[in-house]
From TrEMBL:
Coiled coil: none annotated. Keywords: Membrane, Transmembrane, Transmembrane helix. The chain crosses the membrane at residues 6-27, 54-74, 80-100, 112-133. It comes from the Bacteria. Pfam families: DUF1761. This is DUF1761 domain-containing protein. It comes from Mucilaginibacter psychrotolerans.
Length: 137
């Protein structure tokens, strides 16, 4: 890893891409309704949440995850294929952590797959973006 090869604009774009994925993933037509039910949250509770705090920390943590992945991909040989595969592997890793926590919280398998699936998809996209941008530097 050569930290000088980290492409910071790519890190920000890849990190913020999690918002696009999350917007679709947790929308009502896809998984939003069942996620709320399995989380034990009412619509009123979700609406009452501090949106600045939620979205602000989500952006921060997404960029941190993207930067962490970018450190692993900071090699001149990285391309879109490797970046995507590395992102997918990171997603599987986080899926395992989410599943472990959720099992102890007595969450359903459906809940685990909704949250873990989001992690796999968003990190795979991050890896794709970072790998594609790396290949064009």
């Amino acid at each position: 890893m050569d930290i000088n090869l980290v492409n910071w604009p790519a890190v920000v774009v890849a990190g913020l891409s999690a918002f696009a994925v999350g917007g679709v993933w947790y929308s009502r037509p896809l998984f939003g309704n069942v996620w709320m039910k399995d989380s034990g949250l009412s619509e009123e509770q979700v609406k009452a949440g501090n949106k600045g705090k939620i979205f602000g920390f989500t952006a921060l943590f997404s960029v941190i995850m993207s930067a962490n992945l970018a450190f692993f991909l900071a090699d001149p040989k990285v391309d879109i294929k490797f970046g995507t595969a590395a992102g997918f592997a990171a997603g599987i890793w986080t899926f395992g952590a989410i599943a472990t926590h959720s099992l102890f919280e007595l969450k359903s398998w459906r809940h685990i797959f909704i949250n873990g699936g989001y992690s796999v998809v968003s990190l795979t996209l991050m890896g794709l973006i970072l790998g594609a941008w790396r290949a064009h530097i």
